[in-house]
Amino acid sequence: MKFLKRILLVLSVILIVAVIYNYPKLNILAGYSAKNTASSVYLGKRTLEFTDKTDNNFSPVNLATDKVDTSSKSATSSAFGLLTRKAIYREGLGAVLTLNKDDDKASYLKPVRSNADNVAAFPYGNAPQKDTVFENTNYDKIKNAVDNIFGKSYYSRAAVVVYKDQIIAEKYADGFTKDSRILGWSMTKSIMSTVYGILQHQNKINIQDKAPIDSWQKDARKDITIHNLLQMNSGLEWDENYDEISDATKMLFLERDMTKMQEEKPLVGKPNATWNYSSGTSNLLSKILRKQFNTHQEYLDFWYTDFIDKIGMNSMVVETDLAGNYVASSYAWATARDWAKFGLLYLKNGNWNGEELFTKDWVDYATTPTPTSNGIYGAQFWLNTNGGYKDVPKNMYYADGYQGQRVYVLPDEELVIVRFGLSGFQENKFLSEIISAIQ
């Protein structure tokens, strides 16, 4: 009996130590599942069952148990019954993880949105387009290329191909339609960059200025410019790793104000000579944007009034953190067609239906390779300058999100191609097949 008690005691100690050691991981696991569930159900308008079966079905997130409360528009996720996280949905701002019991009772500002006039045909509205047939286009070949990225191999959810403003191919997986909002993940970084481009065009900001961060003014970080931050080339320390506890995961699932983590990091390299991909940098840039406005309401509104709603991306919602900052690293939702409008804005060099939101100068800037990035990164956009996609023009550029969310812009071909899914796919093959179908 004494021996058995000793064994049980040892096992109990081992269990307690294991729980303590893994508690931070459980916190992030449950946090991811709760946040993703709340956004999927209340923004994406999906069911809990669908979300658990598709979005939350990968290890270790699938170990969490998810529940929703539609009356309070919240979601909770439990990690083995040892730790529970809660996310709440706030109209106009999306879902956010709570950090204490008072967060779901707090008041908040929300952006003022315009009432869209959708009587115009796509892309300037959401009404159906007139049938247009391009004689130089092999529609069967394009359809086959799109079909090939769906199914069990690649788990695509949506694809839209736009040529000369016309949708020439479009497909959705079961459970998705042209009206389904889909998370762009890090494509949100390109949205945020565009806000800078619009402010620059309006002469309200100069991206070559030093970053207006008070805490940097007494050390070497004072020389970092907004330009360095946009190019992810500040020299600041940052660990962008989603497979374990890292700066990125702690920021997204444990922080009230997601703009602070990158601000607090030391220099580990030289500005303009140390490219390092950092979601923390994108959220710090969101903080700097907040500083450009007299009130928080103006900051919230500008993204929509001067950009998102202006080009008819009326389905888009950019989620905020608990402190009210747009999560510029990760959390923009919109329909695939509205994401295509974003690509078209760049294809048109910032001129939307006769109104100049920015000029080709901004497009050239955003697509200029960052020093030390080996030609793959611009100002919050990814590039093909080094020919990484060997059968695709080198001037192709794109917004890039986790698991293969993409908005590709091909200037010479007058093409915008959108793809959403749950895994990577053969991008070079897909893009080259579409390009070759347009002669």
Entry keywords:
439 residues, 15 strands, 33% helix, alpha+beta, four-stranded antiparallel beta sheet
Largest sheet data: 6 strands, antiparallel
Order of helical and strand elements:
HHEEEEHEEEHHHHHHEEHEEHEEEEH
Strand order of the largest sheet: 6-5-15-14-13-12
Query: Helical amount among residues, as a percent range?
Result: 25-40%
What's the pLDDT, averaged over the residues? 93
Helix/strand structural class: alpha+beta
Q: Given the C-alpha coordinates, what overall shape results?
A: globular
What's the β-strand tally?
15
Strand percentage: 15-25%
Could you name the ranges where pLDDT drops below 50 across 5 or more consecutive residues? 8-23
Number of helices: 12
How far is it from the N-terminal to the C-terminal residue, by CA?
A: 83 Å
CA radius of gyration: 23 Å
